[in-house]
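Dear colleagues,

As part of the handover before I leave the project, I'm documenting each prediction I ran so the next person doesn't have to rerun anything. This entry is a single chain, and its sequence is reproduced below.
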Amino acid sequence: MTKISAAQVTELREELERQLEKLTRSMTVTDEALKIVELDQCAVGRLSRMDSLQNQGIAQALREREMVKLALIQSALRRVEEGTYGSCTRCGSPVAFGRLFIFPETESCSSCAD
């Protein structure tokens, strides 16, 4: 397998930056959903409070996934800056462009990902 070209790295870096921007906007929305649920029975009915608490739980799970994705994107952008992007962090082999095109934040080649 051959190492990805400089033009491909540029294309993938731009995609990572787009994903980072989109994720940042999504995290702002998630922050709103994570605000403390009002438990005043006069203000909200019991079922509405239960829905709010359930939605808050869903938002917390989403936040956890967003944090993982954020760390992966930031790590990939660091590897771009260091010149190691496109190499498997486990075995050092080149990562296929097709794999990076689909998952630009990936750290490993398909062999090591199993």
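The CA atoms of residues 41 and 75 lie 45 Å apart. The longest helix spans residues 46-82.

All the best with the project,
I.
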